[in-house]
């Protein structure tokens, strides 16, 4: 899990370097995203965190964390990566409240949803609908989130964090690696995460000098 360590260092640096800053965790209602939120809140008593998921009212753990911390430290916003208007709305809300972003963690990802999508064990189980859904959520979604948060990230990473640059971390997966693909299968998930890696690479090249786009994957060999 090398990438998890890299992402952990990213949010650790963001939270502890200075007085705080603003971090966004996208896909935060449970699992790894929820733990990022928990750790960010724990590591600094001043940093502000924006957590997103599709249905904030049903995200019990996030609501509990919000109650446990001072007003304004944790904001929970609705965001569905398959609905670009919700990404735009989240960006507008963060812009109004905070004016910038210092750290963006894209954690949303799907591998298996009962009766909708399953990791394919053989080629005969591959379905167009699964390929497209995985691609939409795992690859298209995170890139659209970066696109809409880009103006906020461009003004972030400055005085409050003491780092001088903002960070983006995308949760990829070891199985996205072409070089490390020993078993095959899992066509939808593998291909969508590889696509994410590739576009992340393009985003990092467009990043302006002085700012950093962090590559976060669970393998050192991401899709090469
Ligand atoms: N767990 C692992 O061992 C592992 C290994 C390698 C890589 N990863 C990657 O790490 C990331 C996190 O994994 P996890 O195990 O923590 O996943 P998880 O527990 O299934 O959580 C996924 C998160 O994504 C959100 N989500 C799902 N569909 C969404 C959509 N359309 N729009 C917005 N949010 C959506 C969910 O929120 P709502 O459903 O509440 O909206 C939830 O907060 C994923 O990208 C995964 O591929 C995980």
What features would you describe in this structure?
42% of the residues are buried. Strand 4, helix 5 and strand 5 form a beta-alpha-beta unit. Residues 216-224 have low confidence and may be disordered. This protein is of the alpha/beta class and 224 residues long. Helix content is 44%, strand content 11%. The protein binds NADP nicotinamide-adenine-dinucleotide phosphate. NADP nicotinamide-adenine-dinucleotide phosphate is lined by residues 27-33, 53-55, 59, 79-82, 107-110, 137, 171, 173, 218.
**What class do helices, strands and sheet pairing give?**
alpha/beta
Approximately how much beta-strand content do the residues carry? Answer: 5-15%
Strand neighbour order, sheet with most strands: 3-2-1-4-5
| Straight-line N-to-C gap | 18 Å
Q: What is the radius of gyration?
A: 17 Å
How many extended strands? 5
Instruction: Give every kind of bound small molecule, once each.
Output: NADP nicotinamide-adenine-dinucleotide phosphate
Average predicted confidence as pLDDT: 87
- Outline: globular
Number of helices: 6
Pfam families: adh_short
InterPro entries: Fungal_SecMetab_SDRs, NAD(P)-bd_dom_sf, SDR_fam
What labels describe this entry?
alpha/beta; 6 helices; 44% helix; globular; binds NADP nicotinamide-adenine-dinucleotide phosphate
Entry summary:
It contains 6 helices and 5 strands, in the order αβαβαβαβαβα. With 224 residues, the chain is α/β, with parallel strands linked by helices.
